[in-house]
Amino acid sequence: MDLSTRYLGLSLRNPLVASASPLSRNADGVRRLADAGVGAVVLYSLFEEQLRREAEHDERMATQGSESYAESLSYFPEGLENGGGGHRYLRLVERAAAAVDIPVIASLNASTPGSWARYARSMQDTGAAAIEVNIYHLPGDPGPTVLDGAAVEQRHLDVLAAVKAATTVPVAVKLSPYFSATADMAHRLDAAAADGLVLFNRFLQPDIDPETLTTVRTVTLSTPADTRLPLTWIALLCARIRASLAASTGVEHAADVAKYLLAGADVVQSASALLRHGPEYAGVLLNGLCDWMNRKGFHTLNEVRGLLAAPDQDFEARERADYVWALRKANNGSYDTY
Ligand SMILES: Cc1cc2nc3c(=O)[nH]c(=O)nc-3n(C[C@H](O)[C@H](O)[C@H](O)COP(=O)(O)O)c2cc1C
């Protein structure tokens, strides 16, 4: 079965992409993912906070007159050769890109456009095939500096513009699921030349333990129930924007990969399932996808992709009808349970 496809203008051997997670924290991890069969790997993110600490460190080193490492490379931004997280990240990009023959996508975790755009350039120069900008920002500050919706959206566009200006490789934007008008945001990013949109990131949502009276800050792995929101938006955006669409969240079985492709995803990313079962589980997902395609008589991904995207005509009327129909069904006692 030929699963080859395109994402962000890159050729991929298949549409399963390892999304940013601790599995890609070192070159060995990236190699294991590639050996397991994924079409591309997104490295874990370099965090903006880390860059800030880096800059402070650089400044301290500069004022102390410290010497830089002899091995410093010209494509490392000024200051990076002094070591630290940014330096290690670029080394990882370089090693990972050399270790595997699939695209390695570097990830920047940014909340504001800023000097870190230079890191995007360095990621490209060290071998990243593309940059995924993970705009993780919770505009929850209740103080006078609280951002309104327009400012949050503009921030996304500014971050994209800064990274695009600094690089020539494709740039994908990984979005939060929480916009008042997701389609509008997607269209504006598309118009601003985003090469791809990743729908969606998962926010850390702290829990509360009423016994210990503490806040529990932990990452909860996703379940297939979490596919519904990205599935909805991918079905709505398929063929309506030029940028590639990557589905992210909730993949556990090959059927979840199939659903996202049917909705219109160009690629399907997985983190939780690969963390839960190990990188080799990528092979299980890919075999399952091939089995499903065989059973359904599909020969290529083009036959699958977008088959169940939202239809063009009478969209609002249809959406309202679906909503009313689903509620009527639920009122009659018919609903899904997980
Ligand atoms: C432990 C863990 C670490 C993650 N680290 C990152 C990261 O560094 N950058 C990023 O953009 N997303 C990160 N993510 C989010 C995943 O890439 C993915 O978008 C999200 O988990 C939804 O996909 P999933 O349901 O397949 O896990 C992380 C997720 C997990 C579970």
From TrEMBL:
Pathway: Pyrimidine metabolism; UMP biosynthesis via de novo pathway. Its EC number is 1.3.1.14. One of its GO terms (cellular component) is cytoplasm. One of its GO terms (molecular function) is dihydroorotate dehydrogenase (NAD+) activity. InterPro entries: Aldolase_TIM (IPR013785), DHO_dehydrogenase (IPR050074), Dihydroorotate_DH_1_2 (IPR012135), Dihydroorotate_DH_cat (IPR005720). GO terms for biological process: 'de novo' pyrimidine nucleobase biosynthetic process; 'de novo' UMP biosynthetic process. Gene3D superfamilies: Aldolase class I. This is Dihydroorotate dehydrogenase B (NAD(+)), catalytic subunit. It comes from Mycobacterium innocens.
